[in-house]
Amino acid sequence: MSTNTDLSLSSYDEGQGSKFIRKAKETPFVPIGMAGFAAIVAYGLYKLKSRGNTKMSVHLIHMRVAAQGFVVGAMTLGMGYSMYKEFWAKPKP
């Protein structure tokens, strides 16, 4: 079994904060999706006590659909942004 000493260990040297910042610069819509998901969940938990006659299961399903919809929307915008950067904004050779 041979070991590869040419491996770069730079990815192991960076901390969690710097890794998150680097990844956020590469794909900016992922943190937006995460923040939106957290905001919708927090709002749903806040509104949980004043839901009125709505059943708990219906309230939770609505909150889940809203949070998932926000994340899917952020992912779609991120893919569109990536495709734009790669195919249209790239200078022609």
UniProtKB/TrEMBL annotation:
Localization, UniProt: Mitochondrion membrane
GO cellular component assignments: mitochondrial membrane
Coiled coil: none
Domain called HIG1: residue spans: 1-93
GO process annotations (BP): mitochondrial respirasome assembly; negative regulation of apoptotic process
Keyword Ubl conjugation: no
Main location: mitochondrion
Pfam families: HIG_1_N
Superkingdom per UniProt: Eukaryota
Keyword terms of this UniProt record: Membrane, Transmembrane, Transmembrane helix
Parts of the chain that traverse the membrane: 28-46, 66-84
Name recorded for this polypeptide: HIG1 domain-containing protein
Organism: Neotoma lepida
Lineage: Eukaryota, Metazoa, Chordata, Craniata, Vertebrata
